[in-house]
Amino acid sequence: MTIIDGKKVAEELLEKMKRELAQIRERGGRRPHLAAILVGNDGASETYVSAKVKACERVGFKSTLIRLSETISEKNLLENVDLLNRDPDIDGFIVQLPLPKAFSERNVMEAISPEKDVDGFHPVNLGRMMLNLPAYLPATPYGILQLLEYYKIETSGKHCVVVGRSHIVGSPVSVLLARNAYPGNCTVTLTHSKTANLKAITQQADILIVALGKMNFITSDMVKQGAVVIDVGITRIPSGQSKNGTRLIGDVKFDEVAQRCSFITPVPGGVGPMTIVSLLMNTIKASKMNTLKAAKA
Known about the structure:
Radius of gyration: 19 Å
Helix content: 40-55%
Mean pLDDT: 94
Largest sheet: 6 strands, parallel
CATH class of the largest domain: Alpha Beta
Shape: globular
CATH architecture of the largest domain: 3-Layer(aba) Sandwich
Strand content: 15-25%
Order of helices and strands: EHEHEHEHHHEHEHEEEEHEH
Number of helices: 10
Structural class: alpha/beta
Number of domains: 2
Strand order of the largest sheet: 1-11-8-7-5-6
């Protein structure tokens, strides 16, 4: 059994990105600029945004964090989105999810310019992904692909079972692993809360990707011997052994499932670090496109 070390892979890719950016700067190029809008003070969102800001600093990006009160109106939030859409210095930006319940995530995501949607959530980017056209891929599925590629995990002809159908992870990763590419060429089964006989289906998976947000949902009796297991789920529980008073638990009961796997991602330290790397990769791509547009203007 091999533990897929997302933290190690992320470190290597960030260093590679840093070197690439240094070369761009030596040629007189500009630094990519990533912005984030954070509404409210959700603890998990604060942690994620802080990690993204630190990654930007490490690689050499410019970063801007816009903090908004959860009491603002949706109209005000959309005005801030529009300002970033029209700011030529911003290459890409994200609105940190989840938003407070008073806001329509759909309205906000659709208001982001597809050209600056480095989270890959806009319908235009998702549609282009479906058609296998150039697009900003959703960051977490993109990170999963990079882990599979880094560890040279065979995907062609394999049965991939995805548990969870969100537009952020489950649905897009099912599309990406079915495409005619590597990683890809899987036969994909997308399961969800209404799936009957889920255990019988997960037992058939050569590659099992779990993105439910239900702590320890996948147990060893649900996993085929030798399977590759990718755990995307994160649940925070109280802990007296950590500085912030919480610890992270995945959707997979790691200790018992790991004994049956050929490869498995831990939580934390698996998919999470790769999500941030993928976001920065999308931002570099956006920056290069903006540089080309400026040269043609």
